[in-house]
Write a structure and sequence with these properties.
The structure holds 2 protein chains of 2 kinds.
Chain A (H helix, E strand, L loop, with lengths): L4 H7 L5 H12 L3 H12 L2 H13 L4 H21 L5 H24 L7 E6 L7 H12 L3 E4 L6 H11 L3 E5 L7 H12 L7 E5 L5 H7 L3 E3 L2 H19 L1
Parallel strand pairs in A: 1-2, 1-3, 3-4, 4-5
Helix pairs in contact in A: 3-4, 3-5, 3-6, 4-6, 5-6, 6-7, 7-11, 8-9
Chain B lengths: L1 H28 L17 E3 L2 E4 L2 E7 L11 E6 L6
Antiparallel strand pairs in B: 1-4, 2-3
Classes of the chains: A alpha/beta, B alpha+beta.
Chain lengths: 247, 87
């Protein structure tokens, strides 16, 4: 069907008529390089996605074309496969990581075109907690919404959050926790920011399965993200508030 | 440059829509299926879980033995990292 055999096989997972037409039309006239990017993204092959994106830009292919014909076509098939239970969250996150590898080369061009990042967000799972999938989904969403995101990983101490703030100067810090036993470490981190005089420098957002708005309020968080989509909305609101404060 | 910006913006909006659908679906699937369990039923968590079954010779890829009819969360021991030498 397509020049790229692997992508043709992946496309067999697309079974809805409207999607066969929409995604198929979008892929069929693209170059082998674009199809290779799409396929590598579906496979979660971040090195290939990053390398070919870079080569294409050096060859004069526009960022628009790489996004539309390569990266987005790949992610469309990932979305279909996930919706139809062919792949699951781990595979999606690996594909999102490959997307990030491509976007790393495209972001400077977005900037040159006048598309600035929405803001900077620093994310981490709090101390004592090794749960990361909720945080990683939030990071995927925030990046998709145009935020620059720095990931401190799991088991992040208040000191690590403060060090991350000093290093990256984010507008918002997002803390995630899965366990009721580690949730209080969100409050401890907020308190630590008070103690070291950084509390007014950054907005602090919390989220995670056991976290509620009430708990977030008790801890003195600036916002609570109920879901990954909500986290994006809250981050946007916090950044708008910050801008208002600065003006 | 302006049209590029407009087209780029549209493309980024499309990407965000795909991510939104993925996120909504993830919220649904996570109700019954452990989000660390991949398509090959391998556990991708970096922490211990009672549902992990380690096969000899492959200590880094435990098989998930969790049922999708039972809540997977009580099996998580998310404050203890996997020790791959411990089989």
């Amino acid at each position: 069907m397509f020049e790229h055999e692997g992508l043709s096989k992946e496309f067999e997972f697309v079974t809805k008529e409207s999607e066969i037409k929409h995604i198929g039309d979008s892929i069929k006239n693209t170059s082998l390089k674009m199809q290779t990017i799409a396929f590598a993204l579906i496979q979660g092959d971040q090195d290939t996605v990053g390398q070919i994106t870079k080569e294409c830009l050096e060859d004069g292919i526009t960022a628009n074309e790489i996004l539309d014909n390569g990266l987005l076509n790949g992610m469309s098939i990932v979305g279909v496969k996930f919706r139809d239970n062919i792949i699951f969250v781990p595979e999606v996150l690996i594909a999102a990581r490959a997307m990030k590898a491509g976007m790393a080369h495209i972001e400077p061009i977005l900037s040159e075109s006048g598309i600035e990042p929405q803001g900077k967000v620093l994310m981490g799972t709090v101390k004592g907690d090794l749960h990361d999938i909720g945080k990683n989904l939030c990071i995927m969403m925030l990046r998709g919404a145009g935020f620059t995101v720095y990931d401190l990983g799991v088991d992040t101490s208040p000191e690590d959050f403060a060090d991350g703030f000093e290093e990256y100067q984010p507008d918002v810090i997002g803390m995630s926790a899965l366990l009721t036993t580690t949730m209080p470490n969100m409050g401890r981190t907020i308190q630590y920011f008070e103690d070291v005089g950084l509390r007014d420098e950054v907005r602090l957002m919390v989220g995670g399965a056991p976290v509620t708005q009430e708990f977030a309020d008790e801890m003195g968080a600036d916002a609570y993200g109920e879901s990954a989509i909500d986290a994006v909305e809250k981050a946007k609101e916090l950044i708008l508030l910050l801008k208002d404060l600065k003006n | 440059m302006h049209s590029d910006k407009k087209r780029l913006g549209k493309t980024l909006d499309k990407l965000f829509e795909i991510y939104k659908d993925i996120s909504t679906k993830a919220d649904q699937v996570n109700q019954y299926r452990c989000p660390y369990k991949n398509a090959k039923n391998i556990c991708t968590a970096s922490f211990k879980c009672l549902n992990q079954h380690f096969v000899k010779g492959n200590p880094s890829e435990p098989i998930c033995t969790g049922s999708e009819k039972l809540d997977y969360r009580p099996a998580w021991i998310t404050d203890k990292p996997i020790d791959i030498n411990e089989e």
